[in-house]
Amino acid sequence: MKDKRTELKVSAIRSGTVIDHIPAENTFRVFAMLNLENSTDHVYFGTNLESKKLGKKGIIKISNIFFKPEEISKIALVAPHATLIEIRDYEIVKKEQVLLPEEIQKIVKCVNPKCVTNNQNVPTYFKVISDHHGKMKLACRYCEKTMSMEDIEFV
Amino acid sequence: MIHLKNRSLVSITDYSKEEILKVLDIAEGFEKDQRQKILTNHVIASLFFEPSTRTRLSFESAVQYLGGSIIGFASAGTSSVKKGESLKDTILTVSNYSDLIVMRNPLDGSARFASEVSPVPIINAGDGANQHPTQCLLDLYSIRKTQGTLENIHIALVGDLKYGRTVHSLVQALSLFNATFHLVSPESLKLPSGVKKWIKDAGLEYYQYTELSDVIPVADIIYMTRIQGERFPDPMEYEKVKNSYILNNDILEKSKETMRILHPLPRVNEISEEVDDNPKAYYFQQAKNGVYVRQALIAAILGLKD
């Protein structure tokens, strides 16, 4: 009898980006956020995979796409411990952890419906802060409300 | 050097401790001599996108005492906002007609935005549920006036500590002056954790109570606020608490001789009318102090006092 396969084999990508160590519950969020459902290139993803660091993790491999800094900031907001691996010609040319910037501009909506940014043509602007439990939060420069990462909605 | 000239005031946290004290010192000068006609060549715009009695009249009174001219509107209905004009366009237009803009607007963060687009300084007279820094300055003025100092005050904050913006600003400001906070509120209207963090970050202490009588003997200042029925998700709960924080002369028996009662007003029933004649009542004088403080702010921002 043949050995049962215990791992899912996914083709290596020739060129593109691998996003590893996404919290499993946010895999689809990252997927949607990066608009990958409209991609015409190969995209592979897995979720609820075993991870020593996260318990359960997600991973996404995208052919022929390299992310701009503002897209990396977006990833960092929902997957702060994600690793971004850049692959060219089957070789890893860069591997880095995403970094949450100190300020987030334009990409996130303010959670407060009465905030001026939700009622006038004002681009959003948040400072990344940590609350008294050390949890990361976004503080709106305008209405001064803070929001949890779970409440994030992109513009 | 303290430079308030040409600087907008949006949030009390825009000012350092020294800058706050500077405004209070200038305000003291106006209390001694209110009719200083130093604003005769200036035009102040007063843009009230939502109705307000106290704040608007207090600002307009401040400008009149200084001999300045005032233009503006008292509700959005009488402005071009009704025609769909954006806040940015209104501010840019009015800045052509005035040296300084005093603005109240129902949107949270509108004042910060206005200060970013306006070529003339903005004084925030209340932006929605967010900030009301001139109320905070007049509260500080009243505390200093009645206690002789702002340092090491024991302040009891009573009522709606969750939504009351004046309470939040006052906590932020008094955290600069080594205050001790006694927080009295129903369970559902406790001070938000983000505001408590200000106290902790400043290395100061706060104590939480549900009974008003517990704080009476320890307080230097009792800061009363109105509990609004519409804040309660459950009307039953409002019925339970609405009469639990009423200050009357009986309760005040146990208070310190030097204690004074503040209230941002309007009051509903949280301070019995009998207290008005008690020497410890200070809320109407507090409202009067608002004029001196607003005179001081306008003068400092226009560079007419330093």
Characterization of this structure:
The complex is a heterodimer of chains A (155) and B (306). Chain A is mostly beta strands and 155 residues long. Chain A has helices spanning 27-33, 69-78; strands at 16-23, 43-51, 55-63, 83-88, 91-97, 103-105, 125-130, 136-140, 146-148. Chain B has 2 domains: 12-131 and 289-301, Aspartate/ornithine carbamoyltransferase (Rossmann fold); 134-287, Rossmann fold. Chain B contains 10 helices and 9 strands. Chain B has helices at residues 17-32, 54-65, 87-95, 110-117, 133-147, 165-174, 193-201, 235-241, 249-252, 283-301, and strands at residues 43-48, 69-73, 100-105, 122-127, 154-158, 180-184, 206-209, 221-224, 260-262. A 5-stranded parallel beta sheet of chain B has the order 7-6-5-8-9, with helices on one face. In chain B, strands 2-1-3-4 form a 4-stranded parallel beta sheet, sandwiched between helices. Chain B is globular, with a radius of gyration of 19 Å. The termini of chain B are close together. At the A-B interface, loops of A face helix 4 and helix 7 of B.
